[in-house]
What does this fold into?
Amino acid sequence: MQIKQWLVAGAVAACAVIGAVVVWGSGTSQAPQTTFVLLDGSQNTTADLKGKVTLVNFWATSCTTCVAEMPEIVATYEKYKEQGFETLAVAMSYDPPSYVVNFTETRKLPFKVAIDNTGAVAKAWGDVKLTPTTYIVNKRGEIVKSYVGAPDFGELHKLIERLLAEA
It folds into this structure.
């Protein structure tokens, strides 16, 4: 019985540490140099994001949290797009492209959507396996915040506003 309690305590402590890292972030780091293949066949690179505050969201059509948060991501994009804010939704490699296209069209997603067919983009961005995983990249191309799971959108909006105000 005591071993079980120790295991539970250890698991709780590990979750607390992971939660703290997600909430407080770990400072800034340069966004990885990657190429995003968009639904229309065009490409964007990480370098194309410089000069804009960008939300990069790794998601899947089979992820219920991803689907639930998408209207908030759309609203966030619509609220800040005129101020130099960009959104890039990256569908995971296991998501069938036809599902991604259908989701994008039926939900009228107004921002760029990429399909990570090979998984190389998710790997480059920290070996993303859990969806949704969201990164906020500043105008200098640095990751300033990451979220695993749906972000607190009120907090996210304050961060975006602060980053947009930076020179």
Remarks:
- The beta strands are 29-30, 35-37, 43-45, 53-59, 85-91, 112-115, 133-137, 142-148.
- The longest strand covers residues 53-59.
